[in-house]
UniProtKB/TrEMBL annotation:
This is Lytic murein transglycosylase. It comes from the Bacteria. Residues 1-19 form the signal peptide. Residues 397-450 form the Peptidoglycan binding-like domain. Residues 36-49 have a biased composition (Low complexity). Residues 82-375 form the Transglycosylase SLT domain. Residues 26-66 are annotated as: Disordered. Keywords: Signal.
Length: 455
């Protein structure tokens, strides 16, 4: 989701979501609400001025008098969390937040073991060891597609209004909703202040977590939400479309017009907020995110190199659209060719809107899942080409060997982490191209052998 630091959390958040989804059906607790169409309404919060904390009337108090003003807090039972809270509360006060706001956010926090007994790395690694087709099998499952079609039909007038206002089609909003929370079934029932406070106490992402806690204070000061609503996934992402507090503060809107932005229970508020966020990030109305293509025989796979080229160039190179009459709508200028599973799998042109989805979560696999889910929800079966499920993939340890060897040979595969991301694939492609090999950059046993023999 969105910008820099947040994306990392959401990558982790999405991976946990995927990892947990099969066991989380019992969390289903979606409230039903009636959506009343309001075609001419502008969301009310877009015009509301940002709440700036009012300066405190008193001169800067000393540290001991500060703790008298703010505290004391009742112990959370975790000494490090308590110590961090005392310090952070004083700093929040120094930034001008009211004591009542600070106490509202921080009083009832509880330690969360996922941060304070560090288990997050295990979750992180399991996603990246999965081939993309296994990730897509669960992310774009047939049940998620059929549920998405149902949601799109049920709220047809809402989605039409949102597309008119923000330019984002209903199938994409539905797909993000499905990816983030399985259409509101798995929103997370952690207390957001507890999650972010535990993250801050753990320390590695303290500045980020504290920034998100300050955003929660601003949200309460502005009157958008109530303290007891602030439930989140384990990493602090909130509601139907899993907004981090700072994203909520900057982009969430009150579509229902009741004066609150209830992304937890009012799906119309949450979906409008996601649409507003994508729109403000630069979503291009009338354009897709991806389009599947076929490549001609003897294609130069080194052209799938992350570089954008114009649509006419791709046409000249022999790319053909799959399921459409043209490679891209006329308004599209440039696209990147991506072969997620190398030459033997589906090929896609990626457009600007693919990058917009990556503001939600910067993983290419996530953006592809949203795009394919959207296509399928809209009734267009995609992809049409099969994934190379029997290909001789590399284990995490073998990818490390590949990365290390590429680095030694002078191809910059980056950090040796066992994750074959864009950097590793580009390095492998350059190695292959220099030796006039088929240069798709997909890390197979054959590719590893070539690199090991290529010194
Ligand atoms: Ca509302």
């Amino acid at each position: 989701m969105r910008f820099t630091a947040l994306t990392t959390v959401l990558m982790a958040s999405a991976s946990l979501l995927v990892a947990c989804e099969s066991t989380s059906e019992s969390q289903a607790n979606e409230r039903t609400e009636v959506y009343t169409p309001a075609p001419t309404r502008t969301p009310t919060t877009t015009t509301r001025p940002p709440a700036t904390p009012e300066p405190q009337a008193t001169p800067t108090p000393t540290s001991s008098s500060l703790s008298q003003i703010i505290g004391p807090f009742r112990s959370s039972g975790h000494a490090a969390l308590d110590a961090w809270r005392d310090d952070f509360a004083q700093r929040a006060y120094g930034q001008g937040f009211h004591v009542t706001t600070i106490r509202s956010v921080l009083s009832g926090i509880e330690p969360m073991s996922i941060f304070l007994e560090s288990r997050a790395d295990i979750v992180h690694q399991s996603e990246f060891s999965k081939p993309i087709w296994e990730y897509l099998d669960s992310a774009v499952s047939s049940s998620r597609i059929s549920n998405g079609r149902e949601k799109l039909a049920t709220d047809a007038s809402l989605f039409a209004d949102l597309e008119r206002t923000y330019g984002v089609p209903g199938e994409y909003l539905t797909a993000i909703w499905g990816m983030e929370t399985s259409y509101g079934q798995v929103k997370g029932d952690f207390d957001a202040p507890s999650a972010l406070s535990s993250m801050a106490t753990e320390g590695r992402r303290r500045a980020f977590a504290e920034g998100e806690l300050l955003a929660l204070m601003r949200i309460l000061d502005r009157g958008d939400a109530k303290r007891e609503w602030l439930q989140a996934g384990w990493a602090g992402a909130m509601g139907h479309t899993q907004f981090m507090p700072s994203t909520y503060y900057a982009y969430a809107v009150d579509w229902t017009g009741d004066g609150t932005i209830d992304v937890w229970n009012a799906r119309a508020d949450a979906l409008a907020s996601a649409a507003n966020y994508l729109s403000k990030s630069g979503w291009r109305a009338g354009e897709p995110a991806v389009r599947e293509v076929t490549l001609p025989p003897a294609f130069d796979y080194s052209l799938a190199d992350g570089e954008e080229r114009t649509i006419p160039i791709w046409g000249t190179l022999g790319l053909e659209p799959v399921g459409y009459t043209e490679l891209a709508p006329g308004t599209v200028n440039k696209a990147e060719l991506w072969l997620p599973a190398g030459k033997d799998g589906p090929a896609f042109l990626l457009f600007t809107n693919f990058r917009m989805i990556k503001t939600y979560n910067r993983a290419d696999s996530y953006a592809l899942a949203v795009s394919l889910l959207a296509e399928n929800i809209a009734g267009r079966a995609s992809p049409s080409a099969a994934w190379p499920r029997d290909i001789d993939r590399l284990s995490i340890e073998e990818v490390k060997v590949l990365q290390n060897q590429l680095n030694q040979l002078g191809y910059n595969a980056g950090v040796v982490d066992g994750i074959a991301g864009r950097g590793t694939r580009k390095a492998l492609q350059n190695f292959q191209a220099d030796r006039r090999m088929m240069a798709d950059g997909y890390p197979t046993q054959r590719a590893l052998n070539a690199v090991l023999n290529g010194r």
